[in-house]
Amino acid sequence: MTDTRLTELEAAAEAAWIFALPLIELAGARARGHAATGAPMNVFSPMRNLATAKARAVTTPNNDTLYSSAQLDLAAGPVWIEIPPSGSRYVSLALMDAYTNNFAVLGTRTLGPGGGRFRLVGPEHGAVGPETIRSPTRHVWALARIFVEDETDLGAARAVQAGFRLQGPDAPVPPPPPRRSDDWADYFRGADALMAANPPPATDLAVLRRIAPLGLGEGRFDPGAFTPAEAEAIAAGVARARQGVRGGQFGGGRVIAGWSYPDASLGDFGQAYGARAQVAVAGLAALPLVEATYLRAMGESRGVFDGTRSWRLRFAPGGAPPVDAFWSLSLYEITPDGQFFFTDNPLGRYALRSTSPGLTPLEDGSLEILIGAADPGPERQGAWLPAPEGPFALFLRAYIPHPDLLNGRYLVPPVEAI
Fold it and tell me: Between vectors from CA 28 to CA 176 and to CA 253, what angle results, nearest 5°?
């Protein structure tokens, strides 16, 4: 056995672990969703309430929209999708392939207020007519978002949610995948099965050639075929991949005035495999930037804020984020493995948005959001975003952003310590 062979295997394992991570994470979300709701394939499972601190199935949930989620299997035939008329309400249905790329977003931005009916087919089926959409992979995650203005609007939002419909053949629920924390043998066995069911596109050929020494993608991966020295090299490559994703070394965005702006590939990643893997862990199901732009406040250190201190985000008069739909600021606690979930607080408030009734302009016309564990008192409580007495993260979402936000002519002001 040559040193070259071991070096190739280590590099292949590192690249393959990163390449397959979105497959594993999305399949894990599918398994958790089925375990929680019992929903079969090709059927919507609606969340009838806004996400709270109890929502732990998918990292970085929003508190702005109702969700309806469906896991689709197109192997047995097409699935018909109906998007209801929504009027002035923001709605979207993101269609994500097995690698977490959004290959279509149907809703307010792309359809207008009138909705529509579409035929979704798999990669091996014919596609005819303007109402037909072809998925790059057999497995698809369909995730609908329906904006809720405030608690009084919940009933009307649910009525729109009920108009999202699917019609398709019965399909078995795939078995649960391994976890990203599992050893390399189980991880790559699961990745191999998922890649066989959802072959990568030709545009991934370069990375597929790099990972070819592992023999992934045909459903016949055999960890026992490697010698102890080769297995050690594979384990070393996986360890390096894990460290890279955990350490955020594939970031690719830019930091300006205290905010991390996303890379242009977000939501439809192309060959940005490292960024795709990091988003699968920290922001699974992120939309493309033209649909929703996500920014993370950088805080005191790498996006972490201290909840024992008081903070504020102030928009100058007329300086709120420019959007055609709405914007929101969400606060999350941070888990040890780098995921984000809402945290319990006295108000049950997890976000403030452009439509929040208590977020009213100050005398000079500015908007100010107060952030921290200390209650600012009844006069300012409507503008308070409660934080834990510990580390937290802030994310700003801008739905259907104006070009000025996308091209950098508009910059979000920094979050300041008070």
Answer: 155
Phi-psi label, residue 295: left if phi above 0, alpha if psi -120 to 50, beta otherwise: beta
Which spans in 198-227 are helix H?
205-210
**Separation in Å, CA 13 to CA 193, 233, 332, 365:** 16, 8, 33, 55
Identify the DSSP state of 327: E
Q: What is the pLDDT of residues 277-289, one digit of tens each?
A: 999 998 899 999 9
pLDDT tens-digit readout, 107-163: 999 999 999 999 999 998 877 778 999 999 999 999 999 999 988 999 999 999 999
| Alpha-carbon 6 to chain mean position | 35
Q: How far apart are CA 132 and CA 36, in angstroms?
A: 31
Structure tokens at 409: 């002519």
Asked if 174 and 34 touch (Cβ cutoff 8 Å), the reply is no
Residue 4 per-residue DSSP state = H
The model's pTM is 0.92
DSSP bridge partners of 372: 386
Q: What is the C-alpha to C-alpha distance for residues 406 and 109, in angstroms, rounded to an integer?
A: 15
The rounded distance, in Å, linking the Cα atoms of 384 and 78 is 47
Q: What is the β-pairing status of strands 367-372 and 384-386?
A: parallel
Domain architecture of the chain: domains with CATH:
3-24+175-246 (no CATH), 41-167 (2.60.40.1610), 254-417 (2.60.120.600)
